[in-house]
Amino acid sequence: MSKTSLSPTFFILASLLLFCSCATAPDKPVTIREFSALGIERNFDFDYTSEHLLKHLNKKGVVVFEAKKKGGEQKPYYIKIWATPGGPVAEIYAIE
User: Fold this and answer.
1) By the 8 A CB rule, do 30 and 54 touch?
2) I want to staple 29 with a disulfide (CB 3.0 to 4.6 A). Which of 5, 15, 58, 66 is the partner?
3) pLDDT at res. 14
4) Any idea where the domains of the chain sit in the sequence?
5) What DSSP character marks residue 40?
6) String of b and e for 58-79 (b: at least 16 CB within 10 Å)?
């Protein structure tokens, strides 16, 4: 295989992977009970209501927002929540 034929193939594969990795609306909407079970409201302060985040999560399949840890140290974090077939999954990233 020559270099010229590898470039278009690579581009097509990379585009396909990017397209497939994009978030989509969940087949089964996440409930407020499932969302609350993540414990985000107990451990973090953020500017949005849980209902607003849940609406966006059920529409787009993923939601990312900034929050601050409750307690003494008000360190900022990004929180990313995905709607998966097994329920919502959260990842928390410290903002350096």
Assistant:
1) yes
2) 58
3) 58
4) 23-94
5) H
6) beebbbebebeeeeeeeeebeb
Which residue in this structure is represented by tokens 């928390």?
92
Measured distance CA(79)–CA(86) in Å, rounded: 19
- 16-37 b/e with 16+ CB inside 10 Å = b? eeeeeeeeeebeeebeeebbee
Token pair 């992977």 in the structure block, residue? 17
> What is the Cα–Cα distance from 44 to 52, expressed in whole angstroms?
16
Note the pLDDT tens digit of each residue in 75-84.
899 999 999 9
Question: Between 72 and 64, where is the model more confident?
Answer: 64
Question: How many CA atoms does the CB half-sphere of 18 hold within 13 Å?
Answer: 6
Which one-letter amino acid corresponds to residue 75? K
Please classify residue 41 by burial: count the beta carbons closer than 10 Å to its beta carbon, then call 0-12 exposed, 13-18 middle and 19+ buried.
Answer: middle
